[in-house]
Specification:
The complex is a heterodimer.
Chain A (H helix, E strand, L loop, with lengths): L2 H22 L8 H29 L5 H6 L10 H4 L5 H22 L5 H29 L3 H14 L11 H8 L10 H14 L22 H10 L1 H5 L6
Helix pairs in contact in A: 1-2, 1-8, 2-6, 5-6, 5-7, 5-9
Chain B lengths: L11 E7 L7 E7 L3 H12 L7 E6 L11 H5 L23
Antiparallel strand pairs in B: 1-2, 1-3
The chains are: A mainly alpha, B alpha+beta.
Chain lengths: 251, 99
């Protein structure tokens, strides 16, 4: 097994799993019916991508675990998602701002992965990038509408951006596993994705009349699993409850 | 008739979807959205989740002018007894098949 490839696939799949679950928490209680359905679609897209990443991860690991096992039977310290996606939804504005900041990164990342030297990775990314493109289209438009909206919506979006900004840096961090995968032509260099992301974010925030925080501080510890926030554990108790209470239950 | 006041609700849009190339757009339902662009996105999410469409039209419901249900008799009854308007008096040769 390639440990670096396994790690990389967990990072990809855990980002979409955790964010997908967070977004699904809006199901039935979004501000309007149309947003409710759109958010549920986004969540389903992300869970679908998770299925592909974690299935491949399980194969690469070769330890007899399935994608479901990886999703439902790992504990906090084994998750490799960035901290930003495990943050609670807070309000709708915060949810959409997080979605936008992630989507802009996700599209750039998946576009790069579509040209991966690993055919399975390239295949999954080529499918997922279409979904990410729509997600970005939608979240950017909502961020602009709310940022450049009423005084109240503007203030909420600025607060959300200020809160989330220190969590964006982790998207571009890398370690030895990344270096190995970059050298093998499997993934694009994480730091290399930053300029395109920054362009998208800068243009969108300008249109949304929002001010980018002037700070490079970045929380980290999610993608290495070293230090998740306290929120992930709470989320997993909900997400994994059924499999934990009724092991191997099927339906 | 006086225009109803905006209540802060988003305007209502009627949604038309073309199922496949060659067919015409069909009315599938309605939804609310802040503007037309968002209405297309909402329509994509609400009405094409199961691969129903290749093209979406939205139109603000208030832009649609409809016939009045009360005029039904005057408008539609007269065509009831004009059977000769249906092309049912021609013998279609078998070779033509289904028309």
């Amino acid at each position: 097994m390639s440990a670096a490839l396994f790690e990389t696939l967990l990072r990809l799949g855990d980002n979409t799993l955790v964010l997908g679950h967070r977004v699904s928490e809006w199901c039935g209680k979004a501000p309007v019916l149309e947003e409710d359905i759109a958010l549920a679609n986004t969540a389903l897209d992300l869970i679908g991508q998770t299925q592909m990443w974690l299935s491949y991860a399980a194969e690469v690991e070769g330890a007899g675990r399935s994608a479901d096992d990886l999703a439902m039977l790992r504990d906090v310290w084994d998750f490799r998602n960035i901290l930003m996606v495990e943050r609670p939804n807070l309000d709708f504005g915060h949810t959409m701002m997080r979605q936008f900041l992630f989507d802009a990164y996700h599209r750039a990342l998946l576009s790069g992965l579509a040209g991966s030297g690993d055919p399975r990775v390239a295949e999954i990314a080529a499918k997922a990038v279409k979904e990410a493109t729509y997600h970005l289209d939608r979240s950017a438009e909502t961020v602009i509408a709310l940022g450049d909206g009423t005084e109240v919506s503007h203030a909420k979006m600025q607060t959300a951006l200020d809160l989330l900004w220190p969590y964006t840096g982790e998207m571009f961090h890398s370690d030895e596993a990344d270096a190995e995968m970059v050298a093998a032509g499997v993934i694009p260099d994480p730091e290399g994705l930053r300029p395109a992301w920054m362009d998208t974010v800068t243009a969108t925030m300008a249109e949304a009349t929002l001010t980018l925080p002037d700070s490079n501080f970045a929380h980290k510890g999610g993608r290495t699993g070293k230090q998740h926030t306290e929120h992930l554990g709470h989320m997993l108790t909900q997400m994994q409850w059924l499999q934990r209470a009724y092991p191997d239950a099927t339906w | 008739m006086a225009e109803p006041k905006r209540t802060g609700e988003w305007p209502l849009f009627e949604v038309f979807i073309r199922g496949q190339h060659g067919l015409s757009h069909r009315h599938v339902g309605s939804l609310h959205a802040p503007d037309a662009e968002m209405a297309v996105k909402n329509a994509r999410d609400v009405y094409t989740r199961r691969n129903e469409g290749v093209s979406i039209w939205v139109v603000e419901a208030q832009a649609i002018h409809a016939s009045a249900p009360g005029d039904k008799e005057a408008l539609y009854d007269p065509s009831n007894d004009k059977v000769y308007r249906h092309p049912t008096f021609f013998d279609v040769p078998d070779e033509v098949g289904h028309m």
